[in-house]
Predict the structure of Acetyltransferase (GNAT) domain-containing protein.
Amino acid sequence: MLIEVDEKIFGQYFYDDPHPFNTKAFVELNKAKAEKIIRLVEDTEKPEIGLLAGIHKGKLLSPFSAPFGGFHFKKENMYSHKIDTFMLSFKEYLLSQNYKDCNLTLPPDIYHQTFNAKCVSALNRAGFISKTPEITSWIDLQEVQDKYKQKNSREYYRQAQRNKLVFEQVQSQLDREEAYRLICQNRAKFNRPIYMSLDDLQQIENLWPVDFFKVSNPDGEMLASAIFYRWKHQVVYAVFWGDNEKGRPLRAMDFLLLNLWQFYKQHNYRYVDLGISTEDGIPNSGLLRFKETHEAVSSLRYRFALINSL
């Protein structure tokens, strides 16, 4: 049986968050986007699994305003039967509360692969509907060298070097504004929405570091930019990136990405989470191929639903 607990008690049970979008501070920042925040735990003396979710329009959502949500847990190598029991109790809770639907997106495996595998198995066997998974991509920084593995990408990077491009981390507010504006223009060109304002990003800086980067030509003109989150568990998250019309023929993106991978490797991070290259499970072939030819590995980000038919 699962019970709802308040924020303080939940924090006492689960003091080490599994990823940035399940933290108390992040949920607090976004709580207005849900009608109610709930925290579910097992009705035992020492709960080992919990779920933080939002309720909106009669649906239980995890996440309710983030790329992914999922579960809190005490340890990754938990016995599978304990996860099975929690998922069956979770299903009973959803049906008893008569929520119209439940939508759950698990994090990529780079955050907790072992626990994820057992969750996917348990959710399927408990009768949750497995929606088409998203394809997500990530960089293993231990594998990054001083050049790309893919032949064309190596040549494009050499072209960027011949064009005397410059990579640097952005420091000034004016440069940050320009970097963000360049990304907005890039996304508009490809009909891709942008869901966060510059002010939103600056509010996130109260929670964890937000890095801005740029690539410029020898005259100092910005040709490409990127914005990344740093998370304590050896993972950085790619929020936005893009180039402009001047940067594209000069290979600004090829130059930007390898420099980013090397930058974070030097700062002792292990992975770069590049996010999904799909929309509702359908691949964006060009974007996916671009990531993979710039050192990325692709894997699945699982999604589940439970429609209440009562």
